[in-house]
Amino acid sequence: MNKDVKVIKVKNLCKKFGDFTANNNLSFEVSKGEIFGFLGANGAGKTTAIKILCGLSYPTSGEISVAGFDVYKQREQLKRNIGYMSQKFSLYEDLTVFENIRFYGGIYGLSKEVIHRKADDLLKKLDLQHARNKRISSLPLGWKQKLAFSVAIFHDPEIVFLDEPTGGVDPVTRRQFWDLIYEASREGITIFVTTHYMDEAEYCDRVSIMVDGKIEALDTPAKLKEDFNAVDMDQVFLALARTATNVE
Ligand SMILES: Nc1ncnc2c1ncn2[C@@H]1O[C@H](COP(=O)(O)OP(=O)(O)OP(=O)(O)O)[C@@H](O)[C@H]1O
């Protein structure tokens, strides 16, 4: 990780839907190659913030740049320099493995030659050569997710946004998925990930925890555990949720 290079800069981000404030004055920075966990209970405001960081929705106010691009004025450049994967939006089930790779590679403007070369390398790395011409719908969920992640970074983006990428898969497959995340991070890709699995929160370099639209804690998992006198991230998370309930 290169701590000097900040690839995400967020200052006083607010997002309102009418009278309701979904993101309340968020400020944070993410370094190049960092694995940044973006946690919060259901409805805390994570997806709202991710949509803004991906250039899909405008903030109500705040200064935000992603991969060096302004989220108000440079949305198209921003989108070309990021990758995105979620549990819901992922690969086309009716297309084959290779057709999906070719489709996404084409969207990002990669040439036919580059797509073929990189697809060969990718399928070899994932040990999925035999599945090249199989429809996505016929693959196990764990393979789909690894493939979806690899496709999301196929165009070598600066940052990849992962919105609950491992929902519904078993712990062993999730661990393998995280090996791919570590590898991408070592290659300099910044990882911005949301998850409801607290063991995954432990794998992050830093974690922010949002409660009711506000970031209530942000640090390394080790420091958060120390601050909250907790044995694991589950306890940290619960302590914050409890504080929020008491305030109400
Ligand atoms: N377009 C919208 N109009 C009005 N309210 C919205 C809109 N989008 C989101 N919200 C509200 O903003 C709050 C935050 O939603 P958001 O989807 O960002 O939460 P989340 O942390 O991603 O939750 P989850 O973990 O369930 O995905 C919720 O109360 C939601 O109902």
TrEMBL record:
One of its GO terms (molecular function) is ATP binding. Coiled coil: none annotated. Residues 8-237 form the ABC transporter domain. Pfam families: ABC_tran. InterPro entries: AAA+_ATPase, ABC_transporter-like_ATP-bd, P-loop_NTPase. Keywords: ATP-binding, Nucleotide-binding. This is ABC-2 type transport system ATP-binding protein. It comes from Marinifilum flexuosum.
